[in-house]
Amino acid sequence: MEQTTATLKGIIHPYEHYGEGLTQPIVEVKGLNVFSKNAQILKNIHLSVPKNKITVLLGPSGCGKTTLLKCLNRLTDLYSDLRLDGSIFIDNEDILNTPRDITEIRQKMGLLLQRPFPLPMSIAGNITYGLKLKGIRNKKILEAKVEKHLRDVALWDEVKDRLSHSANSLSIGQQQRLCLARGLAVEPEIILADEPTSALDPISSKVIEEEFIKLKNDYTIILVTHILRQAKRLADYVVFMYYGEIVEHGDAEEIFNNPKTALLKHYLESGY
Amino acid sequence: MRKGKKRFEEKMFRYLSAGITLFIVFLLLHIIWSIASKGFAALSWQMITDEPKGGFYFGKEGGILNAIAGSFYLAVAATILSFAISLPVALFINVYLRKYPRRANAIRFFLDVLWGIPSIVYGAFAFTIMMFAGLRTSLIAGIITVAVMIAPIMIRAMDEVLKTIPIGLQEAAYALGATKTETAFHIFLRKALPAFATAILLAFGRGIGDAASVLFTTGFTDYVPSSIQEPAATLPLAIFFQLGSPVKEVQSRAYAAALLLTIIILVVSVLTRLLNRHTRQS
C-alpha cells in the first residue's frame, strides 16, 4: 500500500485528471496537511473539484472526509487543536492565507450537515437570515426569495401556510430540506454536504438526492458519503480517501468500473 | 451468604436515605411552620402598606413598607444590572471560547469559587471601596454590590444552558456567513433565552434574600427611598434588626417580615419551575 500511494502521489497533478466532460476547477486544494494534537488527519491532499458536477468524497468512516469538507469553508477554525498547512483555492483565492473576511468567503458555500440544525427562528426566518446578514432588507425581495428557495427544495407546498411557525415544528426530513434552502438563499457557488441523508428516512433521503441532481446545473456540489450506492447514484467525479490520504480519484465511471488500486477494489467489493 | 449481605446492604441504604430525606423535609417544614405561625399573628394590612412609626427598635406601630420597597428596588435593579454583566460573559465563554475549552473551564472554575464566597465579603469589599471614595450607604451602592454578588450565579446558570447548544448550530450559522458576534446574539441568545428565565429568577431569589451584602452598602432607614442615593431598608435586615429588639411585639414583627420574604422567594421558585417546565415542553 505504501508504494501504491507513493507512486500515485507522484503522478497526481491538479489538471491531469480532467477528462473530456469536466470543466474548469472551482476548488483547488494544494498540498493540504491537517494535524490534530497527536495525529495527522489529512496527508498531502491535492484535489481539484470540477464546476457544476457532483464530486463525491468516498471512504470508510474516520478517513478524513468530513475534515476535508470542513477545511473548504474553514469551519476548522472552530477547533483549536487542528493545524492546517497548505493552500485551498476557491475562485483563485487562497482561503487559508487571505486577508479577506472569512464570513464573505463562507457565503460562497452552502453547508448541509449530518443532521439538520434549524436556526431558532421561523421557517421564513431561516431562509432570510443569511440574506439579512448580507444587508438585504427589502421585504418584497425577501418574500420572493423565501418562496423561490423553498420551491427549489420541494418544501413550498408543505409549509406555505405556516411560514411564521418555528422551524422546529417541521419533521426532520423537512428540516434538512429547509437547511438546504437556507444555504441556497445566500446564492453560493458551491454546496458542501456532509452525509446529508444519514439521519433521514428513505423518502426524505430520496428527495434530497433528487434535489442534488437538479441543483448541479447551477451549483458545484461536494458530497461526503460512506454509502456506496448513494455515491454511485449521484457522483460525476469521485475522490476515494483512506486514512487521511487520497488514494484514487477520477470520473465516476472510471472509478466504479475500473478501479486501479487494491484498496479501492476492496472497498468497492466489501463496502469498507 | 453473599446474597444475604447484598440484600441487607440494599435495605439499609434504602431506609437510611429515606430517613435522612424525611428529616430534611421535616426540618424545612418546621422552619416554615414556625415562621408562619409566629408571623401570621403580626401580619396585617398595615404591615405591608405603612412605614414604621415610633422608632424602629421599639416602635410597635406602622409597617415594613420601607423594607419591602427597598428589597424590591434593590433586587430588581441588581438583577437587571447583573444580567447586563452576565450575558456577555456567558456568551463569550460559549461562543468565543468554545474553541479553547481549557480557558473556558478555568473561567468556570473561578466563577464557581466566586459563587462560594460569603456575601459578607462582597459587602465588606464594597464598603472599603465606598470609604475610599468617600461615599455613604445608598441604594445604588447596594445594587452594585448585590449585582456583582449574584453575577457568578447567573453566569453559571446561563452557561449551563448555552453549553447544551450543539456545535452544529454554530457551524450552520458560520456557514451562512455570520460572524462570531452575530452568532452569539442572533442564534445562541435566541435559542437560550427561554431557559435564561430560570437563571434570572435564581439570581433574583439569592439577591432579595441576602442580608450581609447590603448591611454596609445599603444601610437602613425607616423611609421608602426616593432616590438611589439615599440609603434603603431591606427585608433581611428588617428581620435582623427587629429580632434584636428587646420588645416582644417588635420581635414578632420580624417573623411577619420573614414570612413575607419566604412567600416572595417561594413564588419566585414556583415561577422558575413553571417556566422551566414550559420551556422544556416547547
UniProtKB/TrEMBL annotation, chain A:
- Gene3D superfamilies named in the record: P-loop containing nucleotide triphosphate hydrolases
InterPro entries xref list: AAA+_ATPase, ABC_transporter-like_ATP-bd, P-loop_NTPase, PstB-like
Keyword terms: ATP-binding, Nucleotide-binding, Phosphate transport, Transport
Q: Which residues form a coiled coil?
A: none
Identify the residues that the record assigns to the ABC transporter domain, covering every copy: 27-268
Molecular function (Gene Ontology), one example: ATP binding
Spell out the CDD domains in the cross-references. ABC_PstB_phosphate_transporter
- Please state what the protein is called: Phosphate ABC transporter ATP-binding protein
From TrEMBL, chain B:
The family database entries (SUPFAM superfamilies) matched by this protein are listed as: MetI-like
**InterPro entries tied to this protein:** MetI-like, MetI-like_sf, Phosphate_PstA, Phosphate_transprt_permease
Keywords of this entry = Cell membrane, Membrane, Phosphate transport, Transmembrane, Transmembrane helix, Transport
Per the UniProt entry, the signal peptide is: none
TM region positions: 12-36, 72-97, 109-133, 139-158, 195-216, 254-275
CDD domains named among the record's database cross-references: TM_PBP2 (cd06261)
Domain ABC transmembrane type-1 per the UniProt entry, residue ranges = 68-272
Q: How does it sit in the membrane?
A: Multi-pass membrane protein
Top-rank taxon of the source lineage equals Bacteria
* UniProt-annotated location(s): Cell membrane
Matching entries from Pfam families are given as: BPD_transp_1
Annotated family? Belongs to the binding-protein-dependent transport system permease family. CysTW subfamily.
Specify the protein name.
Phosphate transport system permease protein PstA
Native source species: Danxiaibacter flavus
